[in-house]
Structure formats: C-alpha cells, structure tokens
Amino acid sequence: MTTLAAKTPLKQQTINSLTGTSVWTKWLAFADSQAPKKTLWFLISLVSQGVLFLPIPALLMYYFNAPIAVLAVTLILFFANFIAGMGGSNIRTTLTLFAASIAIHVLMLLVYIL
Known about the structure:
The protein is mainly α. It contains 7 helices and no strands. It is globular, with a radius of gyration of 20 Å. Keywords: Membrane, Transmembrane, Transmembrane helix.
C-alpha cells in the first residue's frame, strides 16, 4: 500500500508545506473570506479602538509612569484604522491594522505593567 506522501518527492513536500500552511497564508485566506463583512469589521475596529484602546495611555501614564509616546502610538493606530476604514482600503489592510493594533496594545500593557 503506497500513500501519496511516498509518491511525491521530499523537495516537493517541503515546498508544499512551506507555502500552503504558513500562518500568513491562513491569515490572508481568513481576511479574504471576510470581504463581504468589511463594514462590520470596520465598525468592530472603530468601537474597540475607542472603548478599549484609547483609555490605555491614561492608565499607563497615570498609574505606571509610562512616557507620552504611549499616547502617540495609540492615537496613530486609532487614526490609521479610521483612515483605512473610511478611505476604502481592502479587507486585508483593515484586518491587519486591527490585529496589529491589538498586538501593539497588549505588548505595551505587558511592558509597562509587568
């Protein structure tokens, strides 16, 4: 009994595994599947930025003596998300900016609180 893996050369298996299952490829496939819901993702991004992320600089600067750069980073990310959503950018840009905002804010919280 032979399998498909036994019939394909090792080099081809390596190329397929590198190109087909990377995190970036999966992210882009997810983003492309969300294209019909672009307005919803823009609203989710805008509301979560305003409610969850904009208070973070006040918290970090008042309680944890963070520099003013925390405020600048938060405002840049907020307006980048706002402009990308209002400017008609594609869904990949909208979701990638939103994910980057989440990651950067979590990183800032970890740096200054821990």
